[in-house]
From TrEMBL:
All residue ranges annotated as the Transposase IS4-like domain in the record: 18-124
Domain of life of the organism encoding this protein: Bacteria
Phylogenetic placement of the source organism: Bacteria, Bacillati, Actinomycetota, Actinomycetes, Kitasatosporales
Region entry Disordered, spans: 1-26
Full protein name: Transposase
Organism name: Streptomyces virginiae
Pfam family, one: DDE_Tnp_1
Length: 135
């Protein structure tokens, strides 16, 4: 399971290492995670918030295949597009975009993808991970 999360950057963080996500209006960095079925982090990538989810997805898939060769399927959300699916196919990974039910409103856990959402939520319990303080 793969997902991205935008984090605000602290005041002293250099502007050349951060960006602003136009759709969410978050200035800072984008934390991108791939977790296994038990929620343990397999690969993490940090990019400027202005980076597209596709760049994160491609970097995460490359990192996962460098670490292990047994991955057969990856579940991603709707932010990832066809380029991630094509890149996964080249690596031998079946990338499935989990579609949201248009009849549901608000946050609704999606089958199997809730695991990566839970990992993101657990990371936010720790003060050092809520905001990006790293210079």
């Amino acid at each position: 399971m793969t997902d991205t999360q935008n984090l605000h950057a602290a005041v002293g963080v250099p502007a050349d290492t951060t960006g602003k996500d136009a759709s969410k209006r978050v200035p800072g960095r984008k934390r991108c995670l791939t977790v296994d079925v038990s929620g343990l982090v397999v690969e993490a990538v940090v990019l400027p918030a202005s980076a597209h989810a596709n760049a994160a997805g491609i970097a995460l898939l490359d990192g996962v295949t460098a670490q292990m060769d047994t991955v057969e399927k990856a579940l991603v959300d709707q932010g990832f597009k066809k380029s991630v699916v094509d890149h996964g196919k080249n690596l031998g990974i079946d990338v499935e975009i989990v579609e949201r039910n248009p009849d549901q409103s608000g946050f609704v856990p999606q089958a199997k993808r809730w695991i990566v959402e839970q990992t993101n939520g657990i990371l936010l319990f720790y003060r050092r991970l809520v905001r990006d303080y790293e210079h």
